[in-house]
Amino acid sequence: MVFRQLFEPLSSTYTYILGCEESGKALLIDGVMPTWQRDLGVIKQLGLKLTHTLDTHIHADHITSARTLKQEVGSRIAHPRIDGLNCTDDPLEEGTALAVGSIKLHPLFTPGHTEGHHAYHVNDRVFTGDALLIDGCGRTDFQGGDAALLYRSIHKKLFSLPDETLVYPGHDYNGRWCSCVGQEKARNPRLGNGKSESDFIKIMNELNLPYPKFIDFAVPGNQACGVCPESLPEELKAYCQPMK
């Protein structure tokens, strides 16, 4: 399997390219609007053709590039069925794998950060979106978030994977690229080292995080699979412009 991990600095988002060497087909997980041209360039350099884009959830901190990539190269939009997006070509749900060439991607329903969040398990790695981060996790105070539900999602779904499973998160703000299930179980300060569900709920309730600055534009844009609003304020236009 061909694999690339790419970073978008404005929202500190990781985008992932997975390619099948036999068929030349590729899928892209959590694409970001400012980097769609870069991502297509990387896919072309690898000798691959993008056939599917996937998002782990309806993002609040960036606009997905799914719709733009579909318009450019005809890729199909795959998204969790539970979110009920009319623009989805291939609804995803746990228990039904998505096959892209020889790649078998297994959705894992992991609500708690958002009510429709999914992680994606492929071979020896899991793409955890905003549910499980390196030494952290996504916030639980908007979009149907629920701390108790996130704790159970992580412990029952993600922490049940083999310890050596590589963890590739949706974001990192400290220059880290990858972790593993065993490491997060052992030392994640919010979830690991025997933290109980009540411990986790207390931690999340006391975070007192600011209101996300882009959420009011990102959520409706992503409910349309990646539409930048015309009324975007000047200070937020970089979220929809090509990365320099």
TrEMBL record:
Superkingdom classification of source: Bacteria
SUPFAM superfamilies registered for this protein in UniProt: Metallo-hydrolase/oxidoreductase
Cited PANTHER family: PERSULFIDE DIOXYGENASE ETHE1, PERSULFIDE DIOXYGENASE ETHE1, MITOCHONDRIAL
InterPro entries named in the record: Metallo-B-lactamas, Mito_Persulfide_Diox, POD-like_MBL-fold, RibonucZ/Hydroxyglut_hydro
Keyword vocabulary terms for this entry: Metal-binding
Pfam families the UniProt entry points to: Lactamase_B
UniProt domain Metallo-beta-lactamase: residue ranges: 12-171
Gene Ontology MF term list: metal ion binding; sulfur dioxygenase activity
SMART domains per UniProt: Lactamase_B
GO biological process per UniProt: glutathione metabolic process; hydrogen sulfide metabolic process
Gene3D superfamilies xref list: Ribonuclease Z/Hydroxyacylglutathione hydrolase-like
Protein's UniProt name: Beta-lactamase domain protein
